[in-house]
Amino acid sequence: MSSKEKDHRLMEVQTTRFGALELDEHRVVGFADGIPGFPHFTRALLIEVENNPDYYWLQSIDEGDLAFLTVVPWSFFADYELVLHDDDQAAIALDDAGDAFICCLVSVDRDKQLFTANLRAPIVVNVAVNRARQIILPDEALSVQAHLA
Questions:
Q1: Could you give the count of Cα atoms lying within 13 Å of 80 in the half-sphere of its Cβ?
Q2: I need a labelling partner for 93 at 20 to 30 A (CA). Which of 30, 73, 84, 135 fits?
Q3: CATH topology for the 3-147 domain
Q4: C-alpha to C-alpha distance for 52 and 56, rounded to whole angstroms
Q5: By percentage, how much of the chain surpasses pLDDT 70?
Q6: For residue 42, how many other CB atoms are within 10 A of its CB?
Q7: Longest Cα–Cα distance in the chain
Q8: Facing residues of 124 across strands?
Q9: Which residue in 49, 50, 32 sits closest to 41, CA to CA?
Q10: What pLDDT shows up at residue 1?
C-alpha cells in the first residue's frame, strides 16, 4: 500500500438520515469526553446542510441513528463571544484560534416551527487535528434556547 493510500483510508458508515456514507477516516471528529448526555458520542462527521452553509449535521459514526443539527452562531448572533479556558483548549490541542470551528446545537419544536440554539454550550472543533469538545460556558446570560430568526 502506498503512502497516499495509507493517508486516505475510506470507511463506510450506515446512517438513518443520510443512508450509507463513504468517507475518509481523516474527516472523523473525535470527542474524547463525548457530549453531555451522550457519553458514547465519541466519533462524528460534520456534514454541511445542502444550500445552507450556516447549518451542519453532527452525525455519529458509531450510532447511525444519532445526528444533531448545529448552527454557526455568528450567522444569527453577530455579537456572540466565548472565551475558552486553557483546559478546554488543551483537551482539543487548540493552539491557534484560526483552527477553531464553533457551532451550537439546535433544538427544533416542530409543532411551533421554532428553532433555537444553545449558545451556552457550543461545540468547539480543532479542525487541524479533528478533535472536539462541547464547552459549558459559565456566562449565565447566554441562552440555551436562543431563537433563530
A1: 22
A2: 73
A3: BH3618-like (2.30.290)
A4: 8
A5: 95
A6: 18
A7: 54
A8: 102, 133
A9: 32
A10: 40
Q: What ranges do the domains of the chain cover?
A: 3-147
Cell numbers standing for residue 58: 453532527
C-alpha cell recorded at residue 72: 454557526
Most confident of 23-27, 31-35, 39-43, 118-122: 118-122
Exposed/middle/buried for residue 62 (C-beta within 10 Å: 0-12, 13-18, 19+) = exposed
User: What is the pLDDT averaged over residues 61-77?
Assistant: 94
Say how far apart CA 106 and CA 144 lie, in whole Å.
Answer: 9
Where do we find the cell 453531555? 36
Q: 7-22, pLDDT tens digit by residue?
A: 668 888 888 888 888 8
| Phi, psi dihedrals of residue 4, rounded to the nearest 5° | -65, -40
Tell me the one-letter amino acid at 146: A
